[in-house]
């Protein structure tokens, strides 16, 4: 994915850059596989800064973020965690799926996200002021929010929020061609298949297929799988929690891929 | 923010100073971003005392507050926590969002908040009497209270309680201008936008936008974003838990910012 | 507070002394701030014994009470906890808010509270018989009892139980004058205000204001606050969990403090 | 309490001795303070064996029972727990309130309570066969049983079960006189008071007062308290979870103690 | 108990031996005290292999089964757990009451119970292939199954399952005579008493008395207790969770033991 | 089981190989004992790569997967976990029953399953890029899915999903003959028995018997057990959670095995 991809889909690249210039933290929201992680990687390249990625999860403690004491040579030595390393290095620190983290772990971010831009390492007895270059970016998928896991308003209000969504069909097909090296007609059929399923979403109540699964299917086709095989294994089967493909979904896919009866042109 | 800000909004600066003189602990209450942390920083400067801030969270143990034994050089050495350090230094110890802390962690505060003004370090076998200068300040946001998390009356009754609220519109606009360096008309439009949303609060049931988000939006405008872009990213999107902006909110914002059709005067 | 305070309010000082003479443990019950902790301190002075105070909480383990092995100089050494220290020293050991403790932590008290008067340190392999001077005192606030936290009857039956309550108005005003050094009329108005709220208790369903908050308010008045300001910050605001003061409560307070319109005589 | 006490109240002393001779474990059941612990102490004297008492609670781990590795001098050394020590010493091991223990902790007892009479120390890699003299005794108060805490039938079926109950009034008064050294008429009035309350049990739904609280009250009377004061502090107040004494209970007590209007003959 | 006991009660000894010859794991099911543990001990003798018994419980971790790193002489050394020791020794490893174990602890058994017959010690970085002689045997009591604790079908399908039940009355009486050395008529009366209670099971809803409790009662009779005393203490009292014996049960027992009015012939 | 088995039952061997060539992770779904583990072993042989198997369970931490610091010689040394070892070795890493794992443990897989193919060892401060040969394979049994344990769509969408099912009867009998060395007629009767039960599935609501249990039964027959004995112990008894066999199931089995009245031809 190139810079244009983001320019085309909205103002997120510009607003991200403006927030960065003003030393404001950014929150990215949007569905699975819509490109949140790629945007952060893209901005790291564009702004010339390293990106430190932290995948959030239920068990992530504040010690995992800021560091802890570790026994070395019989002694106990403080070792910076990835957040502290990112602050000191003036990097972009990216907290992926921040809504998954325990809220108490996020408390250490408060002083980093307001006018203080400071990290308090209570246990190490150290106070780290973030350099100008440091930037904090978080992301989450609103489709997973639950009453137990919702971010607190006081946390959300600390960020410039940039909502993201899927690419329009033409751009999505271009991305698939660029990523997997298959022909445009096959890519367009895959996008048509995905669009049909996304439209049927309300009836089926599943997380719609992302650009990522289309790229995966395209890779499988490039390796010799038929389009229907690839769509079943990469697009349809992951939709349901039992890995099986219902007859209705198979019909939707088969109809979308109808032109693919002809020999696979990608091999 | 300067001292006048607090003088203007009520008697909190004077009462804080009187409580300090009588060596009484203070409890600040009020909504997100109304200036509780800033008041404590302000009082620290005014009274010439260092401020030790502790962000409370579910996992904060009493050991995190008072200290613990740490292995050093093969030996186990007692290391004071931030509360103990604050007591010994005669500092203002500020427990931010104290309602988030586990109640059992707060038990160590009891002997500090009554006539004893003493910290019992049971594990270290040490008794620390607070010097005259020491002051304990706690804060919480009543909007987050729940039956599980409510502070016990016996805890609340140990403090001089100072309720805080948002600034009046004129003062709020002044603060935005001072903080973000944008023009007064833009600041006033942002305050008008926030006031419209705060008024619509009861219908929408969300945490109203704080002064903080207006300052953030102003910073983004100062970096070149349009007023509507900034309002959407900093004021509207954080209101909902999915980061999206509803059509109704966008209309409210657009109407408040109507005068902003003219070229951005801040660039 | 002096000895007379307790003599006047009931037979608790005499019964406490008699229980002590017979080596029986004592349980103090009563509302927040009615003087339980002060009675124990008073009895310590009267009986010429040191008082070891332990604030109970959810996380207090039996190791916190009796002691644990600690690594020192590469070795593991047993270190007595405050309960064991109190037993060995023949002190009065005071377990404040014992109902908050985990019941399993309290099991170590059983052999101390019956005819054995013995502490079994299973992990240290030590058996400590309490000297004649040792006395165990517990307290709790019955207003906080819940089905989850109720003390077991078999535990309660091990103690001489002394219920305590607030002082009568005249004595309470005397205490306030003695503690905070304000004039008697102001103290009487504060007591009148507290009595009005305590009477309205059933309608409002809150923990009534204790003598402690009146003393705090008196201190604030002594520092220059008006009586209404002090009553709002110290008596009324802590009543509700959001720190705000309702109009009804403010009227009750204003009526009680009516005579205070005249200039503050304490400054 | 002497041997006759148990001989008089049933066949428990003889059956205990017979179970001991056949190397069978014994389970004592009965209400608070009916003498379970004293029976075990009595049998220890009678049989000439030491008694190792373990108070069961929610947090008692199997390591607490059998032992654990402890770091000493830089090395890790296995240290026997009280159960293992009791087995090796051929003692009577008494698990007080066994129903409070975690069921998984009790699993280590299985091989001790069937024909194997063996303790498997899996972590130490040691197998300890109990000598002839070893005996396991458990007790619990059925009044506390709950679905969560009930002993499993397969556990109960491993024991000779001896149900115990309170003494008849005459014997109970004798015990009080012997324990506290007060006059028989006072002891009889205390027993009458307890009997009245025990009879009213179904109406009040509380754990009835045990012989223990009567002995405690007698001690307080011996120290100079009036009979009503002692009954209130030791018999009535522990009945309710708030430590207060209801008017109805006070009337029951006053009526039972009516003869005590005359001067206290114990001083 | 001898080999014939098992031959008589079904085909379990032969099937156990056949499973062992084919290196298949065995699952024993059946009520409390029906002889599961004894069968395993019997097969160990018959097949000439050592038996390693592990009592399962809620807190049994996979480390408790396979081993862990232990600090020795300043270093960390891997120490095999009982399962690993049993595998390496080619023993019969017997997991008693496997349904009590945490399911995650059982995951380490998967590779031992299929064609791999291999134990993966992930933490030690070791792969242990079981010798021909190794055999895994598990047992559980289906009467305790609950939705929370049921073994997963995929786990149950890994075993040859051998259901076991109580002996017929004549054999049961023989076992009692052989175990406790009492006369046959007394043994027969005890069995008659147990059979009466087992038949009344549906009305009373308790775990029926096992052969084990009859043997225990016989032991007590051998020590001089009357038959009714022994039946009450060993058979009836353990049936109910309060250790008491209802009138109805006592009548059932008294009727079954009616012939015992004559002097006890066992003394 | 040989390669042909998989070729015959679908396209899973080819798609697995194509996904491997494109460096895409694979998810296998299907019922207990349908051959998921065997397919992975088969592909390891076919592709000439080692297979590292990790059995997932509730307590599997991310440290168990990626590694942890271990004390050696007084120092703390990082030790790779099986996932990290598999990545570095370019192996096939097989996470068996991945749905059982804690979701937070799975977060470390995210960066391995997208275009990054990278493992971030935050605690070791190391970034491991997977070599071309590395492949991640997961499996789960959809029959066990529950709302608590369902894999997140964003996780499922990262894999090429290959649903698997039981073999057709003829092939299944061939497998049984090949595995257990019994005659074909016996194998066919066992398959007929299994098919009858699988068909009755909806009425009985149990996990249907897998090929694995048929192979186990065949092994027992090969050791001399009758067909009905083997079917009862290996096929029927594991179906119900109490290990007992209902009369209805026994009739189904007896009817299917009817031809087996003749002497067992396998001995």
What is shown here, in short?
Chains A, B, C, D, E, F: Residues 25-159 form the ATPase dynein-related AAA domain. Chain A has 267 residues and is an alpha/beta fold.
Sketch the major β-sheet of chain A: 5 strands, parallel
Number of strands of chain A: 9
Tally of domains of chain A: 2
Count of discrete alpha- or pi-helical segments spanning 4 or more residues of chain A: 14
Helicity level of chain A: 40-55%
Instruction: Briefly note the CATH topology name of the largest domain in chain A.
Output: Rossmann fold
Task: Report what the structure shows.
Six copies of one chain form a homohexamer. The first copy, chain A, has 267 residues and is of the alpha/beta class. Chain A has two domains: 11-163, Rossmann fold; 169-257. In chain A, 44% of the residues lie in helices and 16% in strands. Chain A is built from 14 helices and nine strands. In chain A, the strands form three sheets. Chain A has a five-stranded parallel β-sheet, with helices on both faces. A two-stranded antiparallel sheet of chain A has the order 3-4. In chain A, helix 13 (227-236) packs across helix 14 (247-256). Chain A starts with a helix and ends in an 11-residue tail after the last helix. Chains in contact: A-B, A-F, B-C, C-D, D-E, E-F. Chains A, B, C, D, E, F: This is ATPase associated with various cellular activities, AAA_5. Chains A, B, C, D, E, F: Belongs to the CbbQ/NirQ/NorQ/GpvN family. Chains A, B, C, D, E, F: Keywords: ATP-binding, Nucleotide-binding. Chains A, B, C, D, E, F: GO terms for molecular function: ATP binding; ATP hydrolysis activity.
